[in-house]
Design goal:
Layout lengths: L2 H23 L3 H19 L5 H34 L20 E8 L5 E8 L7 E6 L11 H9 L2 E6 L16 H16 L8 E6 L1 H8 L9 E5 L7 H11 L3 H16 L1 H4 L2 H6 L4 E7 L11 H8 L5 E6 L11 H20 L4 H11 L2 H4 L5 H12 L3
Parallel strand pairs: 3-4, 3-5, 5-6, 6-7, 7-8
Antiparallel strand pairs: 1-2, 2-4
């Protein structure tokens, strides 16, 4: 074999290794074929004996440039869009926030702990004075509305029924440090650190640990099982299987199937940024844990489509005794755990809000004033579907 053929083989094998690396490690099968197209063009050009050396160099350079552009420019664009979406902090909107005074008898103690980059996260242990504490429930909150504050009603319900409830603000939310939320895998990271922190505290020693999460939190509480198989039971509401699923679900509602073009780039970026946390899925968590799992979702959820979580889980685990599935037709996303009465009130309130600002000038200050003057705090602090939450308590109790 002459020197040229040996060189060709080395180049081909190297490209094959690069192809497999990109495809397997980053799961970017959809675009790694571009490498082979570029290689084929270069090979054809190289064999053209009548073509001048200068022309070959120009064509080869253009091919390499176009290949780089096809691979890297979209990567840059989608990385920018990703950071625009997740590169901000979120604070709970004050007029809709809960306070301790809203829940008579509820008490809490403040805790601080570090997450992966040394950022300090703030959490609280909520409790009622009970004769015996059955266990501790850790709440992972949703995305975009601030930290755990809007789940204080859930914490109160669990605490009244004999549990400690540890609820914290994820990175970039409310009282916790962080310039931004970073991305969805950050939720799993923060929960991982929160669980380890709880387990390190003497106060919570030997208590069975349960998890409760909604939306982003619903994904986090199931994915984190890969790192904490000791968790006894999990309740996931309106969650999803993979970190990129929320982007895909919302992207489909805006641009349809065109969102698929950007997904490989987003997945590569998350892999670079978050490592193993980015590729670990809820299904991976289920495989590595014996925890009891309650999954609930609504068919009309247009924030996280049911096919990205519930349907995947149901297809494999619908006959498993440790799984419980609850499917709704018309509970939406945010309202999935609200009572019908509460949902009717919120819908009516929103309708009246829109009608009011059709006739009055809108401003952030006017919005705040309207909510403060018209929101019925008695209803707002009693949103929960008690029948559903009774079943959640029974579910948790069965795993003690």
């Amino acid at each position: 074999m002459n020197k040229k053929k040996i060189t060709d083989w080395i180049i081909a094998i190297s490209l094959f290794v690069i192809y497999l690396s990109i495809s397997i490690i980053f799961r970017a099968w959809a675009y790694s074929w571009i490498i082979w197209v570029a290689y084929a063009i270069c090979r054809v050009v190289g064999k053209k004996r009548k073509m001048s050396k200068t022309k070959k160099i120009v064509i080869t350079s253009i091919t390499v440039f176009l290949t780089f552009s096809l691979l890297m420019l979209p990567f840059g664009v989608f990385t920018y869009l990703y950071n625009e979406y997740f590169g901000t902090r979120y604070e709970t909107y004050e007029p809709l926030s809960f306070s301790m005074e809203d829940f008579p008898g509820l008490k809490r103690d403040k805790y601080e702990f570090s997450s992966d980059k040394g950022q300090t996260l703030v959490g609280y242990n909520y409790y009622h004075e009970n004769e015996k504490t059955k266990g501790i429930i850790i709440i992972a909150h949703g995305f975009g509305g601030g930290g755990h504050n809007l789940y204080m009603d859930c914490a109160n319900y669990f605490a009244k029924n004999g549990y400690y409830v540890f609820a914290y603000d994820a990175t970039g939310n409310d009282e916790s440090e962080g310039d931004s939320v970073n991305g969805l895998p950050q939720g799993v990271i923060d929960l991982d650190y929160a669980i380890s922190f709880v387990e390190s505290q003497e106060k919570f020693k030997d208590l069975p640990i349960m998890l409760f999460g909604h939306s982003w939190g619903g994904y986090s509480v199931t994915s984190v099982l890969s790192y904490h198989p000791e968790i006894k039971a999990v309740v996931s509401m309106s969650g999803f299987n993979e970190s990129s699923d929320l982007i895909k679900s919302q992207g489909e509602s805006i641009v349809g199937s065109f969102i698929e073009i950007g997904m490989p780039y987003i997945e590569i970026y998350e892999k670079i940024k978050f490592g193993e946390y980015a590729i670990n899925t809820s299904m991976d968590g289920f495989e590595k844990s014996d925890a009891g799992v309650m999954i609930m979702h609504s068919e009309d959820d247009d924030t996280v489509q049911k096919k990205y979580g519930y349907d995947i889980y149901y297809a494999k685990y619908n006959s498993s005794e440790r799984f419980k599935f609850i499917s709704y037709e018309d509970k939406g996303h945010d309202e999935i755990y609200y009572s019908d009465t509460a949902t009717e009130y919120i819908n009516q309130f929103n309708k009246e809000f829109e009608l009011y600002f059709e006739e009055h000038e809108f401003s952030p200050e006017a919005k705040t004033d309207y909510i403060n003057e018209n929101l019925d705090r008695t209803v707002w602090t009693n949103l929960l579907d008690e029948e559903l939450f009774n079943s959640i308590i029974e579910f948790y109790d069965s795993y003690i």
